[in-house]
Amino acid sequence: MSSEGSRSCESRPELVVELYDWKVAPWSSVREDIMRIDRLCLGRKAFSESDLRTYFEDRLSIVVLLRRENRIIGYCAAAPD
Q1: Which sequence spans correspond to the domains of the chain?
Q2: Considering the domain 15-78 in this protein, what is its CATH number?
């Protein structure tokens, strides 16, 4: 890696990993970013908004968000059977 490449990485905003809490940040506050990510990654196989909302609002689900500059750039969700 060149030293120039290293400098550009250092100037990037910090990544923040967050455990999603629907009581603090309701679905409506994350909906747009989550839907965008899901469609970009899964295309026609993307989850419906209803399914995603169900996962995000289920108190037994675990959802981890990855943020950069307060924008969600990734997420991982695990829901009970």
Answers
A1: 15-78
A2: 3.40.630.30
CA end-to-end span of the chain, whole Å? 45
- Residue linked to tokens 């037994």: 60
Closest CA to 57 of 75, 17, 30: 30
Averages of pLDDT over each 10 residues, the chain, 81 residues: 50 91 94 97 96 93 95 93 75
**Per-residue model confidence (pLDDT) at position 1:** 40
By DSSP bridging, strand 62-68 and strand 71-78 are antiparallel
With 0.85 as the threshold, say if the pTM is over it: no
Q: Token digits for 58? A: 């289920």
